[in-house]
Design brief:
Elements: H1 4-24, H2 31-46, E1 51-59, E2 80-89, E3 92-93, E4 96-101, H3 107-126, H4 133-146, E5 159-160, E6 167-170, E7 184-187, E8 190-193, E9 196-199, E10 202-205, E11 212-213
Antiparallel strand pairs: 1-2, 2-3, 2-4, 5-6, 7-10, 8-9, 10-11
């Protein structure tokens, strides 16, 4: 399940990266520029502690493809940027995601973002020790269908982390594994449409009741709308 204290230390590094991106992301900045900024912040934050990071660094139309990168895209006003970041701090991994907006979102994007947050809150109400992983995906997908975004999330809703940046159980079709008490996991619903995509991911510890969120960082859309850049 991983060293919880080191996962939390890794999550502090994630926060520092997102704050640096909020401060610096602007039109004319490339996906590679964001990657280089991330490396600088991670290296400075971790210091002499063994560390590394992986992630998704995609902007503009590349966000429709869920992840990957950095590619060669240069950001333009009005585009979205997905930064999904896993940091290894010593022997433990974090895994979070935030979506940034270079200007005001469209009405559809605003509705999609609220639907993503509703999907994440639904997951928070469902995941606990003993739950079958595939049940979470089914119920989250049903919510997205009710919001008009059915079929727009072609990936899992989340997965275990700790010793690795990705582990089972994963909240996806066909995974009949059950969540264990004390397991560290993610919830990362997303929506992907023609030309854009978005995702929000937090980390939690499972228990017999509601899980404990261990990533105390904003997720409201206003925090990630970068204006006057």
């Amino acid at each position: 399940m991983g060293n919880l204290e080191n996962v939390k230390k890794a999550l502090e590094v994630n926060k520092r990266v997102y704050e640096a991106v909020r401060e610096n992301l602007r039109p004319g900045m490339s996906e590679q520029d964001v990657y280089d900024l991330t490396k600088k912040v991670v290296d400075e934050a971790c210091g002499d502690v063994p560390h590394e990071f992986i992630g998704d660094f995609v902007g503009g139309a590349n966000t429709e493809g869920i992840g990957g990168g950095p590619f060669d895209h240069v950001m333009k006003a009005g585009e979205l940027f997905i930064l999904d970041l896993s940091v290894r701090y010593d022997d433990a991994w974090s895994d979070t995601c935030r979506t940034f907006f270079l200007g005001e979102p469209t009405d559809e994007q605003d509705r999609a973002y609220e639907s993503v947050l509703e999907a994440q809150r639904l997951g928070e109400s469902l995941v606990r020790a003993g739950v079958v992983a595939s049940d979470i995906k089914e119920q989250v997908e049903a919510l997205l269908v009710s919001k008009g975004f059915g079929g727009c999330m072609p990936h899992h809703v989340g997965h275990a982390i700790g010793d690795e940046p990705y582990a089972k159980p994963a909240f996806e079709e066909g995974c009949d594994m059950t969540v264990q008490d004390g397991e560290i996991f993610t919830l990362e619903p997303g929506i992907y449409k023609d030309g854009w995509g978005m995702r929000v991911e937090n980390n939690y510890v499972a228990g017999t009741g509601d899980p404990e969120c261990i990533f105390d960082y904003p997720r409201n859309i206003e925090y990630f709308i970068l204006k006057n850049r």
